[in-house]
């Protein structure tokens, strides 16, 4: 059992050292623990108090001066369950906070009449503004494209706009989901774009749908989970700078279109790693599928395979075991 597991459960390094000793030597006398662990007596007593609070040990009533080790199958499983419940509660609070922030931003931008945020409602309005921003663009376009396979209508409306922009020598860089390789129509359109001079890369998950024009204006969804609710155009200099930096970071990490997706025989693919992270964040299967651009059935199959490979009984445990294996640190 590695240090990563105990750290995930909230144990300090000193408490882990003491716990390992009492597991190996159930009859060890408390006074001897300092010698066994090379810790100061005060540190040992503090570690014993920590282990007691966590329910891993108890003072022995039968053998004064010794500790009773609670069966690890009971104590560690119970502790893991408590952490899993706490994690779920924090994730729910974060999700509620995100929704509240989104509502506040929408309320603030819609009611103060400022010119650096413009709200768009409906697909017709959004497409009209994309066309206008594309005509005005003179240097570069950067885009995150999410949502999995693109609709035929969306590609047909985008083709003449993209061709017009590229024909003027505007640099176009787009980051698509890796899953586009599973949709022949979307893949054919993206290959057509590269033939026109666009640069395309792919990643397992994009953070949000976004188009930045000339590093001056950005088109974003009002709600990243429900993009159909509308969009907004941002013109704030500091916000645009941050969004450009976000794009460049993902661009550096993305793979060129068509690049072989290398995978060690004992390691998950980039898509599987992204699914593990989404699972660890508490996302539902539906959200994971949407973020990865794959079907719900495929998402559930991948999740089941990962949990089986990790011998995990819950998604939280799968995240802990993946972190122990060093997968999530890459």
Automatic annotation (TrEMBL):
Endpoints of the signal sequence: none
Pfam families listed in its UniProt record: GerE (PF00196)
Domain HTH luxR-type: 261-326
Gene3D superfamilies in UniProt: Winged helix-like DNA-binding domain superfamily/Winged helix DNA-binding domain
Name of the featured protein: LuxR C-terminal-related transcriptional regulator
Species of the source: Nonomuraea purpurea
